[in-house]
Amino acid sequence: MRSIAQRLISYETPKNDSSEISDTATFQVTERLRPHLATLMGNGGFRALLARALKLASAEVSWLRAVEVSPEGVLEGLEKPHARLTPAQFHEGRIVLLAQLLGLLVAFIGPGLTSRLVGEIWPQLAADNVNFGNGDKK
Amino acid sequence: MKKPKRTARLSPSKTGLSKSALPKQPVSNPAKVRIHKLSTGVPGLDDILGGGVPEFSLNMLAGAPGCGKTTLVHQIAFANATPKKPALYFTVLGEPVLKMMRYQQQFSYFDEAKVGTAVRFINLSDVVLGKDLAAVLEEIIAQVTAADAGVVVLDSFRTLARKATSDVGEVEVQSFLHRLAQFLTSWQATTFLVGEYDEDEVRDNSLFTMVDGIFWLSQVTERNSVVRKLQIMKLRGQATVPGLHTVRITSDGLQAFSRTLGLMSDKPKPARRRRLSTGIPELDNMLGGGILEGDSMLVAGPSGTGKSALATQFIAEGLRQGESGIMAIFEERPEGYTQRADSFGLNLKAAEQKGTLELLYLRPLDLSVDETMLAILEAIKRVGAKRLVIDSLVGFEMALAPGFRTDFRESLYRMIGALTGAGITILSTVEVEDNFTSLQFSHYAISFLTDDIVRLRYVEIDGQLRKMMVVIKMRGGNHSKDIREYVITSQGVVVIHPRRTDYAEMSTGIPHRTGPRKAQENEAAPEPKASN
């Protein structure tokens, strides 16, 4: 799941950015997923899923413990860590959280449906022949 | 509005003919609107609905939790959704979508490729909780318009209605539903509202008056078995099959079993029918030449009197005549049947291999009567059977779950009626206990199901327990009234003697001699007497 997360993040990185790591204080992929998943499961449903992913990701990336999910399902409290951490450390948090979020989707609705949902937002995933595997969260 | 055109009619004054002498001209009426029907994708349900769900109708899928409402509506949505005319599935404070998708994808009808394109899930909970009914309607209209939806689902409508009723009152909810229905019909969408309702609410809740169709799902508990049932309480514009229909949920989703088993055709039997040989020449004579084609015959008798042997001969004779057959057996295993047939010189195996005979071994407990009958009907279709044996009715009933046994006779009645109507000749066996005081036909009240009854029984004669048969009833004509002795030999059932005139009260099983005793050799004792 980590490699898919990396791939999705790369899709969202501006093409003119020479570095592979975006230096913004946002989680662009999570943000793009939000309206789509909220349409499906409501804001509350998305918020619950993201909060769970954050909890799981915090076990791997400690700085994520300071981050919170707003009632609308938006990640809050990213500015301080962004200022404090190296771009690589911040980027790692993005990858781990997204991988956990995708892993939860796979665990709940399976790799097929997850692939379709994510593929609606990033059609290039199908072209890249990305496989969401058999439910493995990592 | 223009008046409909009528064909020109000849006026009597213009033709000089009297009114009655004029040839009758057909009046051309304007064509009625043809309502297309959506196939539900649920096996058996389209037949119950009278062809399917009327296009552009507003339907309520109601019942208690766990009856299969969500599965049913998913099945309908997946069966009808296309990327051009998608199904929009609005969820409202009911089962979370992730869970719904998690569970529904276990069914074979759930086509992942359709999710997001042909079948789109939209969560309305936030709008319902945060805004008013006008906003909910606005959101539905916006989504349906944008997607050009062909099917719209609101799950759970009950939750939406309950929330809105407590906020703004029942009239507002009715008004909302009226506007929603008006929009969705105009937009050519077929709509399904899903809700948890009690049957008592149907009378008092005006929502049920507004909808075009009510699909009522329930679970009926009897002893240890639970049976799912479906009733089409209402469906405007078309004739549905009334009553409670059994529903089963399998890995393929819902399957409905119509009370009529899809056998509505009640073809009248032809005036002149062939007589079919039973494979026992003397029995054919007793029956006035054989069983009338399309008759249902009951062979009743105690254990060991040769009911299954007779049934095997009936089927084997049909095969000899080029008539395919089905043997639905509930007690003995198929191997036992083929072995017995072999011992009579009847090769059933060859017919099975040729595809002109099927032995259906239907013994698992907890079957529903409709499922069992469907298995028989499908086998009949497969081999184009002209003869059917059900051996035995007692075993058939025992194979059913207790909850289904009450429906047994009614369902059997429908099946036998429909099959014989279609010209299939049926021989059923039933075990009865001989009580040696009277001649029972069956402890079931099923003799009304049959056109003909043959009774086999043990009779004590000259210190032996012999076997006798008699034709009790033959609806299609006259028959022999003789009580005839028969034996079971390597040829099967063979009727041996003409009627006995030297005994009276043969039917009791313990007759008394009225004529002179014939000289006969004493039979040797089976065992030597014990000596001191």
Biggest beta sheet summary of chain B: 9 strands, mixed
Secondary structural class of chain B: alpha/beta
Helix content of chain B: 25-40%
- Largest β-sheet summary of chain A: 2 strands, antiparallel
Give the assembly state of these chains: heterodimer
Quick take:
The complex is a heterodimer of chains A (138) and B (532). Chain A is mainly alpha-helical. Chain A contains 5 helices and 2 strands.
Describe this structure in words.
- The complex is a heterodimer of chains A (about 140) and B (about 525).
- Chain A contains five helices and two strands, in the order ααββααα.
- Chain A has about 140 residues and is mostly helical.
- A two-stranded antiparallel ribbon of chain A has the order 1-2.
- In chain A, a hairpin with a 5-residue loop joins β1 and β2.
- In chain A, α1 crosses α4 (about 85-120) and α2 packs across α4.
- Chain B is an alpha/beta fold and about 525 residues long.
- Helices cover about 30% and strands about 25% of the residues of chain B.
- Chain B has a nine-stranded mixed sheet with strand order 5-4-6-7-3-8-9-10-11, with helices on both faces.
- In chain B, a hairpin with a 7-residue loop joins β23 (about 505) and β24.
- In chain B, α6 packs parallel to α8 and α7 (about 155-170) crosses α8.
Topology summary:
The complex is a heterodimer of chains A (138) and B (532).
Chain A: H1 2-12, H2 28-58, E1 68-69, E2 75-76, H3 79-84, H4 87-121, H5 124-127
Antiparallel strand pairs in A: 1-2
Helix pairs in contact in A: 1-4, 2-4
Chain B: H1 12-15, E1 37-38, H2 45-49, E2 53-54, E3 58-63, H3 69-80, E4 87-91, H4 97-104, E5 119-123, H5 125-130, H6 133-147, E6 151-155, H7 157-168, H8 170-186, E7 190-196, H9 201-204, H10 207-210, E8 213-222, E9 225-235, E10 244-250, E11 253-257, E12 275-276, H11 281-286, E13 291-292, E14 296-301, H12 307-320, E15 325-329, H13 334-343, H14 348-354, E16 357-361, H15 369-383, E17 387-391, H16 393-398, H17 402-405, H18 408-421, E18 425-431, E19 452-461, E20 464-474, E21 484-489, E22 492-495, E23 503-504, E24 512-513
